[in-house]
Amino acid sequence: MKYAGLLVMPAGFFLSIAALVLFPAPAPRAAFVLCGLAVEALGLAVAVRGHMEARQEPLP
Amino acid sequence: MIPITPAPPAMSEPTFVFCLVLLLLAPMAIAGVALINTGLGRSRSAAQALLGNLAMVAVTAIVFALLGAALTGSLPGPPGGFPGSAGHTFHIAGKPWNWLGAGPHFLAGLASAPLPSQLALLFEFLAVAFVALIPWGSGADRLRLTAGCAISAVLAALVFPLFAHWVWVGGWLSQLGINFSLGAGFLDPGGAATVHALGGLGALALVWITGSRKGKFPKGGFSTAMPGHNAIYALFGCFVALVGWMAWNLAGAILWLHAPIATLSTTAVNTLLSASGAILATFIVTRIRFGKPDASLCANGWLAGLVASSAAAALVSPWQALFIGIVAGIATPLLVELLELAVSIDDPSGAISVHAVSGLWGLFAVGLFSPRPGQLVAQLVGIATLLGLMLPLVYLLFWLLNRLIPLRVDPDGERIGMDLHELGGGAYPEFVIHRDESYR
Q1: pLDDT higher than threshold 50 for residue B291
Q2: Do B388 and A30 touch (CB under 8 A)?
Q3: pLDDT value at B77 more than 60
Q4: A40 and B388: CB-CB below 8 Å?
Q5: Which residues, 6+ apart, have CB-to-CB distance to B397 below 8 Å?
Q6: Alpha helices of B157-263 — where are they, by DSSP H?
């Protein structure tokens, strides 16, 4: 799961970049850049969840 | 607020000298952060931590001179002008995307380069050293010296040059204004993105890969408190960092925004206001949360205000700078607690909250307070690049590095402390270093 999150994050970046090229108007461009950031946030959340450590053994 | 000139003016000799003096003061910021990180680590790893900082400055300087400077592309600039033309470019939808610098190898032509190019290169040498220090603080008490040097080499050879070129040296992020009418392009005069967010995200990747300190998160129960060993180092480091940070932000404003000297006092005041607002906010938040102000979190709060000011000090009004600092100061202690308790991230120096999150907040705030249309979108694209491209890239590189050279010390080394294990002697030989009760 940790790697899945990290793979989703570049997808968000490319969505933001695509918004620059595909949408000359400011409003849809800003909306798609925000969508890209939302995808990145989702990927980050998955990566954080995936990296959460299993608790170590109790101290003797 | 400094007006952004589209075409850089030639740098006069007095401005060159003034900027050079600022850049000679800027390492105080690095020294301050090194002190803070050492103070927030444990006593049995203090010498290794500080020696590691020095080693990283050395490694980044050499690797950047050999490889990174060419990829950054600061040398040579256009005749008599400013750095920014040397780069590899591809075209999409009729727009140029300058993605990699193409400077001379091994600093060839440094002595004869235009004055701004020479200063830009010096700024980058300091910046890349700063980037490497940030993950080292997060990996305290478990990261080997060799590993720290290897990480620094990777950052100086590839990661920093790539991003610094995009932001500072005419790369595609800096050209968003020209190519896509997004304000003045992505703005980061003091290195909030190029230094702090990049270093902070590197710290996150490193903590994910190396894991937590032994005994930090025991099964069944809260995380074990492992407080910093020297609050004096941490708090004195804040003073040292302030001097360096002011110099850093002023030099950045001259180099990357072409600010006239008459406007620089506002930048210095904004830096101070941001840090002041942040530490007072942290003071109040920790007072409310724990009943008493927390010294180490206040040091982190101060640093968070300085980090946020790196993006914004030259571009906002004093009251906006104060607001930016206050927000950073409120967020930092809450995030430090959240990362440790909720998501089990062991970050002894708080670098992820301080450098990554505050840096990103400062970058966002620049867009939020900018009167230029499209500036906020430009800042968001820069933030998206950091999160969506640089974090996975750094993670991949550190992961590969960990396969080649184990980054983490062996369990025995962690038990006896990094000083004894790696250096053969402690930082405080005349004091009794208590056995760590959290590790048995």
Answers
A1: yes
A2: no
A3: no
A4: yes
A5: B154, B158, B159
A6: 160-168, 176-180, 198-210, 231-257
Shortest distance between the Cα of A47 and any Cα of chain B, in A, equals: 9
Contacting residues of B for A2, CB less than 8 Å apart: 208
Compute the nearest-CA separation of B176 from chain A (Å): 9
Task: Determine the length of chain A.
Answer: 60
Angle between helices B231-257 and B295-312 (to 10 degrees): 0
Q: How far apart are CA B384 and CA A15, in angstroms?
A: 10
The band of B9, judged by pLDDT with boundaries at 50, 70 and 90, is low
For residue B377, give the nearest of A11, A33, A55 by CB distance: A33
Q: Which residue has the higher pLDDT, A1 or B237?
A: B237
> What integer pLDDT is reported at residue B383 of this predicted model?
98
Size of interface A-B (CB pairs under 8 A): 97
Owner of token pair 């104060």: B322
User: Residue B76 — pLDDT band, cuts 50, 70, 90?
Assistant: confident
Tokens linked to B48:
């290794």
Using pLDDT thresholds of 50, 70 and 90, give the confidence band for residue B7.
low
> For residue B220, which residues of chain A lie inside 8 Å, CB to CB?
55, 58
Determine the pLDDT at residue B150.
97
List the Cα angle B106/B112/B118 in 5-degree steps.
Answer: 70
Nearest CA in chain B to A43: B388
Residue B102, classed as helix, strand or coil, is: coil
> Looking at residue B3, what is its pLDDT?
61
Chain B: nearest CA to A30, how far in angstroms?
A: 6
Contact A6 B180 (CB under 8 A): no
